[in-house]
């Protein structure tokens, strides 16, 4: 049967391409749920690559980052794995207890600080929910025919997510539940000779510290880590209305919750050049003079986001009631 | 969409988009293609043409169904040997495409280019001062070619010698995306010599520290790409970064020379320079066409495109589709040209678009400051290329401000 490549050109003009529906929610292990997110109209989602994460803005106003762990060849769904953080501030508990299939969440990104760079060999190390960004990396390593191995630790076997998906890889995967085998012995597992290899590690602080200590002194770029932080990732809000003062034109425009900033500017007769309308290409970069942008693009790194001096008006919004732009 | 779910064969036409008449003036053929249906089978080449905005946009973004790795020209790398090692960017799909693209996006991104703005503006002022010392000149050679050749090779970090090879190399590379016609045969005479020169410039020791080229090699040191990939990524800059910008700048100057009221408007509001460039890219579409290859039996708007068949996307036709644009044939600075597909769309969208915009902004701003009127002083002459819409000469007359 032929695959239908359906029209999504309209999607580029939709007011809020970042509102996604929870298409399904299922347990992935004790204390871990997997969510599948999709557009209400079933359209394409912004592209991503292994290592990418999205910002999830929950209906209770909290924002959390989750690695994408689905299939990038399926353009219409994102999958994330969410661990219930017993000591968290309620974000993950909300996902576990309140969020249901059919609910709508706002999503920023995807952004990627953990890209899969070419290597002759990959050594993947995961602790707990840190397995999520590594799952699509493993798929791609296989696809490229690059040799890889995975060391995966967790509290107990039943708390370790996605073991079923990893089972097909046989002895390339070493599973070490702490109650059976103790903490991961990274030094023993990593080969002596790491020439041409890249080590990708994601997990709790203790694991990352151990791997970093072991890999100190290796050539630049050999070790790549992503730290999973339970902390709120900074100001992010839902789609509330806000005012934008355009300092150069001496005007103020109100952006309603159902409009992108780019659209509101266009309707006020001020066309800001844009292209992808997904926060990917960078064409609509605008200087921020005052106020705090609610970044939802895929371009800025954490430092640039924190600096808050520029934003991409096609997807990003305002944290507070007012922004001042150099327009 | 086909409600029955069973795709049917599309309309078939016997027309040649690469014939000299079509390259000279593609607009009538594009209109015919758009009106014939969402998908048109081109018998001569056994390819499937898309000319409406909606379907071109969809095809560009759907890299899963329409691959680039089998080549973005007519040649199908599943069955044919490419004329040079395939580009790691243009002619690659995920996952192979990811790392080269990420590296180049960073190097050519808007925030990395800020440091070039002042230098390029000063260069543009200087060039415009020199050129406008005469009341008439050829805008193609004196401005559209001269400016990129003045600033871009420096930004890449190329040596002084041999830069004249860049234009003929790019011209051949873009011809080679089409069928093996006379244009390709003409370029083939020098292809060995030009390729050898271009390949030699991609070596690390040929590139000035701090330039785009050296930063690609730095990314290899950082482990983000391999050292074997670095020269091929530099080659992408040299292939795709010159001719395209030259023809886009020529398109913009032509648009203004032919539309004096729009020139007035720009002079009254120089902030429109960026809009003007993208409107020119929409209006003329310097890159007219690219191919993709179906990764399986595919249904596009209910029409069957069989696995492995080439899909020819008419970017120029999409950018003038009346289904998407009001008065598409008008060059109009009041329009918002955003989301045109002149730079492509999706994961292969032109990674150098910000470089081109910065060059254009510098040049047209300098020109607007110095020149009160610009008009055609004779009939401009098209340069024919299988992929590019180009001018070989454009005599203009100016009045200084």
Kindly report the spatial arrangement of strands forming the biggest sheet of chain A: 5-4-7-2-3-6
Parts with pLDDT < 50 across at least 5 consecutive residues of chain A: 7-17
Secondary structure class of chain A reads alpha/beta
Approximate shape of chain B: globular
Write down how many β-strands of chain A occur, each being a DSSP E stretch of 2 or more residues: 19
Protein chain pair with the most extensive contact, residues per chain: A-B, 50 and 56 residues
Gap from first CA to last CA of chain A = 50 Å
Order of the strands making up the biggest sheet of chain B: 1-2-3-9-6-4
User: How helix-rich are the residues of chain A, as a percent range?
Assistant: 10-25%
Cα gyration radius of chain B (Å): 21 Å
SSE pattern of chain A, N- to C-terminal: EEEEEEHEEHEHEHHEHEEEHEEHEEE
Number of helices of chain A: 8
Count of discrete alpha- or pi-helical segments spanning 4 or more residues of chain B: 17
Q: Work out the oligomeric state of the chains in this entry.
A: heterodimer
- Tell me the structural class of chain B: alpha+beta
Please summarize the sheet with the most strands of chain B. 6 strands, mixed
Rg of chain A (C-alpha, Å): 21 Å
Residues in helix, % of chain B: 40-55%
- What order do the SSEs of chain B take from the amino end to the carboxyl end, as H and E? EHHEEHEHHHEHHHHHHHHHEEEEHHEEEE
Task: Please report which band the strand proportion of chain B falls in: under 5%, 5-15%, 15-25%, 25-35%, 35-45% or over 45%.
Answer: 5-15%
Strand content of chain A: 25-35%
Word description of this protein:
The complex is a heterodimer of chains A (327) and B (401). Chain A has 8 helices and 19 strands. Chain A starts with a strand and ends with a strand. Helices cover 17% and strands 32% of the residues of chain A. Chain A is an alpha/beta fold. In chain B, a hairpin with a 4-residue loop joins strand 2 and strand 3 (47-50). Chain B is globular, with a radius of gyration of 21 Å. Chain B is an alpha+beta fold and 401 residues long. Chain B has a 6-stranded mixed sheet with strand order 1-2-3-9-6-4, sandwiched between helices. Chain B has a 3-stranded antiparallel sheet with strand order 5-13-10. Chain B has a two-stranded antiparallel sheet with strand order 7-8. Chain B contains 17 helices and 13 strands. Helices cover 45% and strands 13% of the residues of chain B. In chain B, helix 8 runs antiparallel to helix 9, helix 11 (212-221) runs antiparallel to helix 12 (230-240) and helix 13 (243-258) packs across helix 15 (273-284). Chains A and B meet through strand 1 and helix 2 of A and helix 3, helix 4, helix 15, strand 7 and helix 17 of B. Strand 1 (3-4) of chain A pairs parallel with strand 7 of chain B, so a sheet runs across the interface.
């Amino acid at each position: 049967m032929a695959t239908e490549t359906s029209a999504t050109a309209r999607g580029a003009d939709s007011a809020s391409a970042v509102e996604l529906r929870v298409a399904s929610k299922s347990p992935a292990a004790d204390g871990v749920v997997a969510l599948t997110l999709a557009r209400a109209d079933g359209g394409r989602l912004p592209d991503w690559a292994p290592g990418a994460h999205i910002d999830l803005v929950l209906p209770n106003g909290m924002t959390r980052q989750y690695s994408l762990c689905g299939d990038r060849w399926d353009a219409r769904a994102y999958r994330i794995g969410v661990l219930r953080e017993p000591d968290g501030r309620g974000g993950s508990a909300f996902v576990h207890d309140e969020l249901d299939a059919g609910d709508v969440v706002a999503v920023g990104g995807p952004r990627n600080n953990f890209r899969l760079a070419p290597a002759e060999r990959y050594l993947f190390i995961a602790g707990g929910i840190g397995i999520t960004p590594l799952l699509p990396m493993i798929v791609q390593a296989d696809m490229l025919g690059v040799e890889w191995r995975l060391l995966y630790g967790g509290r107990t076997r039943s708390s370790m997510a996605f073991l079923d998906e990893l089972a097909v890889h046989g002895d390339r995967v070493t599973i070490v539940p702490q109650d059976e085998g103790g903490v991961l012995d990274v030094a023993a597992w990593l080969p002596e000779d790491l020439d041409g290899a890249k080590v990708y590690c994601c997990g709790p602080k203790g694991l990352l510290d151990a791997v970093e200590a072991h890999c100190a002194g290796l050539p630049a770029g050999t070790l790549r880590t992503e730290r999973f932080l339970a902390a709120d990732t900074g100001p992010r809000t839902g789609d509330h209305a806000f005012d934008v003062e355009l300092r150069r034109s001496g005007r103020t425009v109100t952006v309603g919750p159902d409009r992108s900033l780019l659209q509101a500017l266009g309707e006020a007769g001020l066309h800001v050049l844009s292209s992808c309308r997904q926060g990917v290409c960078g064409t609509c970069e605008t200087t921020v003079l005052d106020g705090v942008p609610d970044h939802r693009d895929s371009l800025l790194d954490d430092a640039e986001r924190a600096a808050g001096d520029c934003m991409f008006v096609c997807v990003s919004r305002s944290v507070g009631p007012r922004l001042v732009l150099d327009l | 969409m086909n409600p029955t779910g069973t795709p049917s064969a599309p309309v078939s036409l016997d027309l040649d988009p690469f014939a000299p008449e079509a390259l000279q003036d593609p607009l009538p053929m594009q209109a015919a293609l758009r009106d014939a249906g969402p998908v048109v089978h081109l018998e001569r080449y056994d390819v499937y043409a898309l000319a409406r905005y909606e379907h071109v946009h969809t095809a560009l973004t759907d890299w899963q169904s329409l691959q680039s790795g089998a080549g973005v020209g007519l040649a199908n790398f599943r069955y044919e040997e490419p004329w040079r090692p395939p580009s790691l960017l243009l002619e690659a799909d995920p996952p192979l495409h990811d790392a080269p693209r990420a590296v180049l996006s960073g190097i050519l991104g808007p925030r990395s280019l800020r440091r070039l703005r002042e230098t390029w503006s000063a260069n543009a002022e200087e060039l415009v001062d020199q050129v406008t010392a005469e009341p008439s000149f050829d805008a193609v050679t004196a401005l559209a070619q001269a400016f990129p050749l003045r600033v871009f090779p420096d930004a890449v970090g190329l040596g002084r010698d041999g830069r004249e090879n860049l234009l003929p190399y790019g011209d051949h590379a873009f011809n080679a995306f089409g069928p093996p016609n006379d244009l390709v045969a003409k370029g083939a005479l020098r292809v060995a010599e030009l390729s050898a020169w271009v390949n030699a410039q991609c070596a690390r020791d040929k590139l000035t520290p701090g330039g785009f080229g050296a930063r690609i090699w730095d990314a290899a040191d950082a482990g983000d790409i391999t050292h074997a990939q670095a020269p091929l990524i530099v080659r992408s800059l040299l292939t795709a970064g010159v001719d395209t910008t030259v023809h886009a700048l020529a398109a913009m100057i032509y648009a203004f020379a032919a539309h004096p009221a729009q020139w007035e408007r720009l002079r009254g509001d120089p902030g429109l320079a960026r809009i003007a460039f993208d409107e020119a890219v929409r209006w003329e579409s310097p890159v007219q066409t690219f191919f993709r290859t179906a990764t399986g039996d595919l249904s596009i708007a209910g029409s069957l495109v069989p696995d492995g068949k080439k899909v020819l996307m008419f970017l120029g036709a999409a950018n003038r589709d009346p289904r998407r644009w009001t008065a598409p044939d008008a060059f109009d600075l009041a329009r918002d040209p955003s989301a045109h597909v002149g730079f492509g769309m999706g994961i292969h969208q032109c990674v150098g678009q910000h470089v081109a915009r910065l060059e254009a902004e510098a040049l047209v701003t300098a020109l607007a400051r110095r020149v009160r009127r610009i008009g055609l002083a004779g009939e401009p002459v098209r340069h024919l290329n299988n992929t590019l819409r180009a001018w070989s000469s454009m005599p203009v007359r100016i009045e200084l401000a």
